[in-house]
Amino acid sequence: MSETDDRNSASSLGDELSGDLKTRSLWQDAVKRLLRNRLSIIGLIITLLLLVAAFFGPYIAPYAYTEQDLLHVAKMPSIDHWLGTDEIGRDMFSRVLWGARTATLVAIFTTVISVIIGVVLGALAGYGGALADNITGRVIDIVMSVPGLLLAALIAVSIKEPVVTWADAIYDSSGFPLFADTTWLDLLVVFGGLAFVSWPGYARLIRGQIFSLREEQYIEAAKAVGVSELKIALRHLLPNAIGPVIVTLTFSFSSAMVLESSLSYLGIGVQPPQASWGNMISSNIGSWSYRPWLVAVPALTLAIVTLGINFLGDGLNDALNPRTGRSI
Amino acid sequence: MFVYTLKRLAIAVPTFIAVLVITFTLTVISPFDPVEMMMTQFEGTLDTLAKEDAIKRIRAQYGLDDTYWVQFTRWVGRMTQGDLGISINKQRDVLRMIVKSFPISFQLGLAGAVVTTLLGIPLGCIAALRQNSWIDYTIVGGTLAFRTVPVFVLAPLLLILFVLWLDLMNVPYGWDGIFQGKVVLPICILALGPLPVVVRQTRAAVLEVFSMDYVRTAKMKGLEMWRIIIRHILRNALIPVVTTLGFITEGLIVGSIFLDSIFAIPGFGAVAEAGFRGFDYPVIMGVTMVSAVMIILTNLLVDLIYPFLDPRITLE
Description:
Structural class of chain B: mainly alpha
Radius of gyration of chain B: 24 Å
Largest sheet of chain A: none
Structural class of chain A: mainly alpha
CATH topology of chain A: MetI-like fold
Oligomer: heterodimer
Number of strands of chain A: 0
Helix content of chain A: over 70%
CATH architecture of chain A: Orthogonal Bundle
Distance between the termini of chain A: 21 Å
Shape of chain B: flat
Number of helices of chain A: 11
Order of helices and strands of chain B: HHHHHHHHHHHHHH
Helix content of chain B: over 70%
Order of helices and strands of chain A: HHHHHHHHHHH
CATH class of chain A: Mainly Alpha
Largest interface: A-B, 50 and 56 residues
Strand content of chain B: under 5%
Shape of chain A: globular
Number of strands of chain B: 0
C-alpha cells in the first residue's frame, strides 16, 4: 500500500513540475493532503523503514538471529553489537530486524485473509437480503463478544497440534522438503487465529458502505439508465468504498502486529529461537531492573512501529475522506 | 420495559451459548494432549508401563475418551452447577481460582475505569472546545498513541522510566490491597488502554451537542461558558459515552492478562496467563467464558440503562 502511495506521490510531483496543476485526480489530491500533515509523513517514513527492514533485514543484519557470542553475553550497546546482546549472547539489532520480518509477514497475511473473509461476508450481508444480513450480523456479534486476544489465543492453542501433525503426515508421505522445517507453521497458526478475530471489522465496514452508498443518487441514476448490478458495484460502489477500506487496512495492520506479539509474548505464537518482538520482550522482561536495554529495545521498536502506522492511518483518513474532516 | 429487557436477553443468551459451543469445540478438536504434558513432569520417575497406566487412569478421570456430545453436555451440565473443571497443571478448582483472584482484579479494574473516565471526559471535552487547534491535536494524537501500544510494552518502559531514571518509586511488586502506593502505576497503565475510546466518544458527542440550538440560546442569553458546558453540554454529551463501557471492560480484561504477571498481582489476568502458558485448557476455557460473560453482561447493562438516560430511545 505504501508503495502505491509512493508511486502516487512521485507522479503528483511530476505533474506539478510540468505545470499541469489544473487536472488533479482524487488520488493526487489525497496524496497532497497526506503530505501536508507532518505526523503522517513521520508515519509514512516509519512504515517504509519497517518494510525495508522486513524485506532486506536478513541481508542487512550483521549476525544470524540464532548466532551466539558467548564471550559477549548481555552486553550494553557497543560498536560490535549496536543494540547490545541478550542473555545468551545473540545480537539484539539482528534479532530486531528478523522480528520486523516476522511481524510484517504476520500482519500482511492476516490482513489479506481477513479482508477476503470480511469482504465476502460483508457483500453477502449487503446484497443477500434480510436473512443473510441477520445471520452474518449474529455471527459477527458472537465473534466480537469474546476479547480478540483471548479468542485468537484459544484458536492458536487448539489448532497448533493438528497443523503440526498434518504437516508431519505430509512430510512422511511425500518427503516434500517444505514440510521438514516446521517453524513457518507457527506463523500459519498465528495467521489462523488472528484472521478469525479480525474479519468482523471488515464485514461490518463493507456492509455499512453498501447500505449507505446504495441510497446515493448517482447509484439510483445508474440504475435508472439500466446499468447492471455488477457494473454498478465495480464502477460506483467499489471506488467510493475504497477510501474507508484503506484506512481500516492501515489500522488493522498495526493491530495484527500487536496481536502477533501479544500471542508470542504469551508463548503461543512464534516460538523461540525464531525472533518475534513479543517473545523478545517476554524473555527479557524479568531482568528489566538490571538490564533495562534488553527489554527496552524490542518494546520501543514495537511502540514506535505501531505508533508510526497509526499516524499514517490517521493521515490517510484525513486525506481519503475529506468530507468527514478530521474524524478520529 | 419488561418486553425490552426480555428482547435484550433474547439476544444475549444465544450469543453466550454460541460462545460456549465455539470454545468447547476448539478445545476438543485439538488432539493436543494435556495429560501427556502433565506426565512430562514425572519424566524419569515412572517406568513406561506405570506411565501408560497412569495416563489411562487420568484420561478416564477427566472423561477425555468420551464422544464430543457426551463431553459437551457433561461440561455444560457441570457448568450450570458452577463447576468449571479442575486445572490440569495446578490440580485446583478452576472456578475457585478465578473467584479468588476476582476481587483483586475487580478493585484494580474499577480504579482503572474511574481513572479512564476522570481523564477521558475532561480531555475529550477540551479537545472538542478547542477543535482543530494544537491542543486538540495534542490530546487526540497523544491518546491515539495508546490505542495500540500494548501493556507489555508500556509497563516495562514506564518501569524503567519511573524507577530507574527518575527514581520516583520503588519497584512496584505484589498486592497488599488497593490503598497502596504501588498500585498507582498498574492502575494508570490499565486506564491508558481504553482512554482513547472515551476521549474520542466524548469529543464527538460534545461537538454534536455544541451546534444545537439550545446551546446557542444559552450563549446568547449570556451564560458563562463553564455553566453552559456543565449544565447544557455535558449532561447530553455524556449519554453516548456510556456505550464505551463494554469496550472499557474488554480493555481491562485484556490489559490485566499482561499486567498481573509483570507486577506480581495475583489477579484474574495472572490465572489467565498461567493457563495459556501451560496449555491448561480447563483454565483457558474458564477464563474465556468468564470474560465473555462479563462483556455480554456489560453490554446488556448498557442497553438496559440507556433508555433511562435518553428517554427519546423507545423501549420497544
